[in-house]
């Protein structure tokens, strides 16, 4: 391959990625190139005329082609920021979304407004990258967090992320379905149960953005025929594990607020909803 400069490589990458809705072509190209060159993004701005070694150039174009087909940038870079913390991500874990920060922010706010002598025990159903569990443990210094996932990849990735952020002694990642692995821990009552469960209707997964529907784990998205299967399971199943007066907090899809209120109304009180920064209903909390 003929040597090419940073500038030329970026221009060619732009042509390849074009105007796909799921890419920010120039930003993506810069991130991919700095990833391949193992340099900071700022290096590129100062070295537009530097020639890129052939092997790196080849690798760069491979990744650009992959990205052009919709492969998530975060899986290539191996990372996504959430709540100001870098999380390692890879295929098999859902990429943390900024919308989910609203759920974590609200829980932190509620915990901090309540003075208790011992830290809260928090149970999460559906670990993913560990974004929720790790950031709760990180920002609530005395929280003890338990998080369950039905798939093994998230359990491994989340433990790695907990370690990266120094909260591994207060986070416990368990493999199994819903509440099933908890009994091995003995009788623990939780102050908070939190979940961002799969909530897309099964037949609507194909309609999501290509990069989500093709490359992100279906297990983390598929909420059954009406998208509400896991809300029902967690809402009723959680009663056995919650302290009296304990809190159940869910992330929801933008059109699921009424359904959630209906599901939680029987067993939970003081139900509140919180909108995300885009004005969509995103969080439902009950006690
Ligand atoms: N918000 C996710 C999306 O990108 C869905 C996550 C979920 O099902 N919990 O569609």
List keywords for this structure.
287 residues, alpha/beta, Helicase, Ruva Protein, domain 3, Rossmann fold, 2 domains, seven-stranded mixed sheet, two-stranded antiparallel sheet, 11 helices, 11 strands, 38% helix, elongated, binds glutamine, methyltransferase, Release factor glutamine methyltransferase, EC 2.1.1.297, S-adenosyl-L-methionine, transferase
How is this structure best described in words?
The chain is of the alpha/beta class. It folds into 2 domains: 4-70, Helicase, Ruva Protein, domain 3, CATH 1.10.8; 80-286, 3-Layer(aba) Sandwich (Rossmann fold), CATH 3.40.50. It has 11 helices and 11 strands. It has helices at 6-17, 25-37, 41-46, 54-68, 73-77, 101-113, 131-139, 152-164, 210-215, 229-237, 257-265; strands spanning 4-5, 51-52, 79-82, 85-88, 121-125, 144-149, 171-175, 190-195, 242-251, 272-275, 281-286. The strands form 3 sheets. Strands 7-6-5-8-9-11-10 form a 7-stranded mixed β-sheet, with helices on both faces. A hairpin with a 5-residue loop joins strand 10 (272-275) and strand 11. Helix 2 (25-37) runs antiparallel to helix 4 (54-68) and helix 6 (101-113) packs parallel to helix 7 (131-139). The termini are far apart. 39% of the residues are buried. The structure holds glutamine. Glutamine binds at residues 97, 196-200, 208, 212, 221.
